[in-house]
Amino acid sequence: MTEDMLVVHGGAPLRGEVQVRGAKNLISKAMVASVLGTGVSRLYDVPKISDVGIIRGLLELHGVRVSTGPEGELVFDPSNVERASTDEINVHAGSSRIPILLCGPLLHRLGHAFIPDLGGCKIGDRPIDFHLEALRQFGATIDKTPDGLHLTAPERLRGTKFELPYPSVGATEQVLLTAVLAEGITELRNAAVEPEIVDLICILQKMGAIIKVHTNRVIEIQGVEKLGGYNHRPIPDRIEAASWAAAALATKGDVLVRGANQVDMMTFLNTFRSVGGAFEVLDHGIRFWHPGDELKAVALETDVHPGFMTDWQQPLVVALSQARGLSIVHETVYERRFGYTEALNKMGANIQLYRECLGGTPCRWGRRNFLHSAVIAGPSKLYAADLEIPDLRAGFSHVIAALAAEGTSRVYGVDHYIVRGYEDFDGKLAALGARTERPA
Ligand SMILES: CC(=O)N[C@H]1[C@@H](OP(=O)(O)OP(=O)(O)OC[C@H]2O[C@@H](n3ccc(=O)[nH]c3=O)[C@H](O)[C@@H]2O)O[C@H](CO)[C@@H](O)[C@@H]1O
Ligand SMILES: C=C(OP(=O)(O)O)C(=O)O
Hints:
Layout: E1 5-9, E2 15-19, H1 24-33, E3 41-43, H2 50-61, E4 65-68, E5 74-77, H3 86-90, H4 103-110, E6 112-115, H5 129-138, E7 141-145, E8 148-152, E9 161-163, H6 169-179, E10 185-189, H7 195-207, E11 210-213, E12 219-222, E13 231-232, H8 238-250, E14 254-258, H9 266-275, E15 278-282, E16 285-289, E17 295-296, E18 299-301, H10 313-320, E19 323-330, H11 341-346, E20 350-354, E21 373-378, E22 386-388, H12 392-404, E23 408-412, H13 414-417, H14 425-431, E24 435-437
Parallel strand pairs: 2-14, 3-13, 9-10, 17-19, 18-19, 22-23
Antiparallel strand pairs: 1-23, 1-24, 3-5, 4-5, 6-8, 7-8, 10-12, 11-12, 14-16, 15-16, 19-21, 20-21
Helix pairs in contact: 1-2, 1-7, 4-6, 5-6, 6-7, 8-10, 8-12, 10-12
Residues 25, 97, 124-131, 166, 168-171, 192, 310-311, 333-334 line the site of uridine-diphosphate-N-acetylglucosamine.
Binding site for phosphoenolpyruvate: 24-25
EC number: 2.5.1.7
Main location: cytoplasm
């Protein structure tokens, strides 16, 4: 499909400024949280990305009135939450993972929830067993049918004690969004504590929830009878910020990422510096640049917060292909997050994948029968190629590689994938001096 294709003339460093707005991985959850309230909620700085449109559509099907204000403001009025037909909901089947988080809010409001097949990036099996087990413990009944999940809770859900086998972001959000209106106390052990989760807790607290974050990943939620609305400006997107930082490094450029927040990116910044990248933290963002010296190889493992995010590795690996020596990236969160390396190799990179847990510690997952360690030998000269994007973050890394390469590449799948997480992608590339075109 040529309309989904970006032509990239490589070889020019990215230079200039981009602005990041509210984090993709918070915005959609904040939208879901609005359903829990009886009052109007206002979310500011919402980027124009496709996941927002999908969740908006689902909320509207359930009777939430959504309107837009200036500069990315979204307003939610959930006073008339109602059931939607499975056929209508199924229009959104396979489009996002967020619908699973509607379980608790819809059960509280309606006693029933229908969840279509989930979508999201195909970067692993991505089961929802922790979600379903937690919901059962709250008292929900779950019926899996070929068209999706039907959940019922004829009585008020009850608080519970639950320990996650792994600090899953989605399952932690599931528990939070369910426990806030459940009867009694919920204790969640081994919870995820990503900045996006802390921001969701802030939103719920604004709505009237009582949530205590203890040490050692323990979160205690005291259920309340009723929640109101919220006014919230979300944390900036630290994945997008790191993506532009990696793009600056890989193209030997200099990019000021307005809105980038140091505290949410500390681990990334340490790695960026270890590779040889330079940055300066400013009041309104972070400037990232290639200082001219040869980049250095590093070993890193992806991990839950405060570790190195799994969503940061794909863009950074393009820069690592330009570093001298052997870099190791051990992916411990998802089983199949190296799909993009095939394209980089086609362009001249030297990346080998291994089933072993390379990098230091064994994979906490136990799922070792996957190619989840990458060894990147550099520096490699990159040449243009025709590339097919396999998922969102991989897509960004394809585009960076094309920008760093010699010659003209064609990148397919841009509008399908990149638009899920990067607002005004073409506009931002143009602002940074990238030489890209859309076919006529
Ligand atoms: C929309 C959103 O916020 N997406 C992010 C979210 O995804 P998401 O919330 O889906 O990621 P999780 O933290 O839940 O998944 C982490 C790991 O746990 C496994 N797992 C998860 C749930 C479950 O019930 N059973 C199970 O086995 C998954 O297969 C995966 O291997 O966190 C990931 C980890 O930071 C990020 O890469 C994604 O960008
Ligand atoms: C994996 C991602 O998102 P999702 O969970 O929506 O698929 C991502 O943002 O990189």
